[in-house]
Amino acid sequence: ILAQANGSGPQSQSLNKHHAQWNPSSSPTMGKLSYQNYGKTFRKPKRPFEKERLDSEMKVVGEYGLKNKREVWRVSYALAKIRTAARHLLTLEDKSEERLFQGEALLRRMTRLGLLTDSEKKLDYVLGLTTSKIMERRLQTKVFKLGLAKSIHHARVLVRQRHIRVGKQIVNVPSFLVRTDSEKHIDFSLCSPFGGSRPGRVRRKRTAAAGGGAGEADEED
Question: Which residues fall within 8 angstroms of residue 57, CB to CB, at 6 or more apart?
Fold first, then answer.
């Protein structure tokens, strides 16, 4: 009894060991919890110095006027998740409720974004999607293809500087995926100088300077 009271007995040693295991200060995971409310948007390649992949990525970056290769990786990651979902649905039975419900939703979304045509409403065609198909649906690409910009890089500048609207909404995200029903509503913003609004700050300043110089010349005459 005295041994147990002094903490030298077998029961007291087991209790001390139990308390030592559950001591918050000695816990290795204390203070290392992740509170991030978002997931990954891209995935880096496993082999960073693969020549064929580097060349193909540089070609895509130059062709579509991308900012960096991270935009290519983001599209590839999204495409991989779409293919994974389609591959999982193909393993189910044809009359499965999950395949019927989720498959129709996936095909409807791909058709709405213009990635699949009306004659390609099958999960097999989802596996055949490529990065270039998604790149063609970007707002930056559409602005250039519609002739609103002089080059693909000029199209990115116009979008970022809020000169482009889709319907009534100004969109300043170059990677915005344009739906098929919204494609005909891409135009210059009503607040933009290109859309009939007043000239920009630099143009007004130059006009005022040119007008002031002409007025001074008339006074001297």
Answer: 69, 72
Give pLDDT tens digits for 50-109.
999 999 999 999 999 999 999 999 999 999 999 999 999 999 999 999 999 999 999 999
Q: Are 125 and 103 in contact (CB under 8 A)?
A: no
pLDDT of residue 199: 87
d(CA 79, CA 85): 10
pTM: 0.75
Strand ranges across the sheet with 164-166 = 169-170, 164-166, 186-188
HEC string of the chain equals: CHHHHHCCCHHHHHHHHHHHHCCHHHCCCCCCCCCCCCCCCCCCCCCCCCHHHHHHHHHHHHHHCCCCHHHHHHHHHHHHHHHHHHHHHHCCCCCCHHHHHHHHHHHHHHHHCCCCCHHHCCHHHHCCCCHHHHHHCEHHHHHHHCCCCCCHHHHHHHHHCCCEEECCEECCCCCCECCCCCHHHEEECCCCHHHCCCCCHHHHHHHHHHHHHHHHHHHHC
* Position 216 pLDDT exceeds 60: no
pLDDT reported for residue 180: 95
Nearest Cα to Cα of residue 181 among 112, 116, 120 = 112
Angle, helix 97-112 to helix 69-90, in steps of 10 degrees: 150
Q: Whole-angstrom Cα distance, residue 30 to residue 206?
A: 62
Contact 24, 32 (CB under 8 A): no
